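Request from the bench team (R.T.):
"We need a structural guess for the complex before ordering more magnesium ion. Sequence and SMILES attached. Just send the tokens back."

Command: build protein-magnesium ion structure.
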Amino acid sequence: MIEITRLVKSFGSLNVLKGMEMRVEKGEIFSILGKSGSGKSVTLKCIVGLVVPDAGDIVVDSVRVDADDRKSLAAVRKKIGYLFQGGALYDSMTILDNLIFNLSRHRKMQRSEAADRSRHYLSLVGLKESLNKLPSELSGGMKKRAALARALVIEPEILLCDEPTTGLDPITSREISELIGSLHQQFHVTAIVVTHDILCAGILSDRAGVLDDGMLKYTGSIKELAAIQDEEVAGYFKSPLQ
Ligand SMILES: Nc1ncnc2c1ncn2[C@@H]1O[C@H](COP(=O)(O)OP(=O)(O)O)[C@@H](O)[C@H]1O
Ligand SMILES: [Mg+2]
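Reply to R.T.: structure attached below.
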């Protein structure tokens, strides 16, 4: 469903991606683990054309992502729901309006239909009672839920989640991870989850990869990754109690 070949991206003298390769099959959840600053968010942004790679190919469901070709870019973006790292909710709009706005940008739909669908998705993530709240009135976990509903309301074939649990307490992190898992089961989306939360990756992933030094170093099931003798990888699996 998503194939990345020899992806290269630098910002000035900072070489972030150095020929990264990644393949995500239809319907699976693939997690990208990696240190802060390793290029996880940049990778997701390349997939939707928000960042333009220096070299390499990205193919999404047989369409090559090409930032110079607005048609192909629009076709790719139509398929993708994006849960941004910071949530990217509009502060001055209620969460219901945030969803309606996202829907009206991506799908041709009457406002009443868009409102009905938005309410439905907000209730799926447990925010039925908070439709008319502003993002500033929500807790961290509720904001992530709202951002997740905003990504899903367009009923995408692909879901990109950037740090869905970062900044949340362990209990809320688990709840959000399980919520993404149950929505994935319901809608059969193909998903990439960027995280440094091994619990989240463990709950969700079919497979995962570790982004290090501009390349996806290891890929495999979380179990397979846990068995790898590499300090960088092992760091994710160390319990603070050990
Ligand atoms: N638009 C940009 N301009 C310059 N540097 C950037 C830009 N976007 C990201 N970077 C740099 O690229 C590196 C990787 O960033 P990012 O993908 O956001 O890391 P992370 O793995 O934590 O998500 C970081 O050092 C970051 O500062
Ligand atoms: Mg990031």
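Two things stood out. The chain is about 40% helix and 25% strand. Strands lie at 2-11, 14-24, 29-34, 55-60, 63-64, 80-83, 158-162, 190-194, 207-212, 215-220.
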